[in-house]
What we know:
By secondary structure, the chain is of the alpha/beta class. It is 12% helix and 22% strand. It contains one helix and four strands. The chain has a four-stranded parallel beta sheet with strand order 3-2-1-4, with no helix packed on it.
Amino acid sequence: MAYTLYRRLTHTHLSRLSLDGAVLDLGGSKKSAYWKCIGGTHTLSVANLDPNADPDITWDLEQTPYPVDDASFNAVLAINLL
């Protein structure tokens, strides 16, 4: 699969990242290849309204408060979201 320059650069920078613990990916997808780039010992959960993203949490990210407990994740990703 051919990737755009932007996507290759994103994957390169993410491969320098190491995350441990529970990670929440806002607006992501379990089908995204960037998950494999991130090092560390972590579990990734997806919050997304789109059912095609296979989310763990189905949620409109513009609605607050989010349906997660405070301090339930060690890190949050917002890739191509903001």
